[in-house]
């Protein structure tokens, strides 16, 4: 059976809600991470220094979505109901049953909290169990060890590194580190992620 393409939807857990990204999220997102060099260090975007610059960044992502290039979500922290980050489905194919999770960033205050773990659990559950995907992938800057470690903790498998793959905003070149998870690996990964969430903040 052919997989279904991702589309805007709402995915809700105990700690976070993923909802379609919109211009209305701009004030929360700028308050959460605007001007924070560390949040944006390894992302292929300039650091938003004003709410207007954040609006341009979100507008570009929404334009990409309108063209069918991604399905972006605002990540809502249910503790206060505010948007604390963005994550997306990218590079998807129903015929090939694959999708990438990427374009992800979070306010520093929710790093190593349940937010990223549950957001990924929601995205993976939707991709494998509801869309019928057979492969989910991630890629990240080879210098971004924090991101690589977080992806490995999901249960993803390192696949290789593309050298001189993308130019950073400062003009330097990055190598891209690739990971994936296949449908027959998902059951064990889901059990581990669910256990980590249940065990509390020290384990996520």
UniProtKB/TrEMBL annotation:
<protein>
    <submittedName>
        <fullName>GNAT family protein</fullName>
    </submittedName>
</protein>
<dbReference type="InterPro" id="IPR000182">
    <property type="entry name" value="GNAT_dom"/>
</dbReference>
<dbReference type="InterPro" id="IPR016181">
    <property type="entry name" value="Acyl_CoA_acyltransferase"/>
</dbReference>
<feature type="domain" description="N-acetyltransferase">
    <location>
        <begin position="16"/>
        <end position="184"/>
    </location>
</feature>
<dbReference type="Pfam" id="PF13302">
    <property type="entry name" value="Acetyltransf_3"/>
</dbReference>
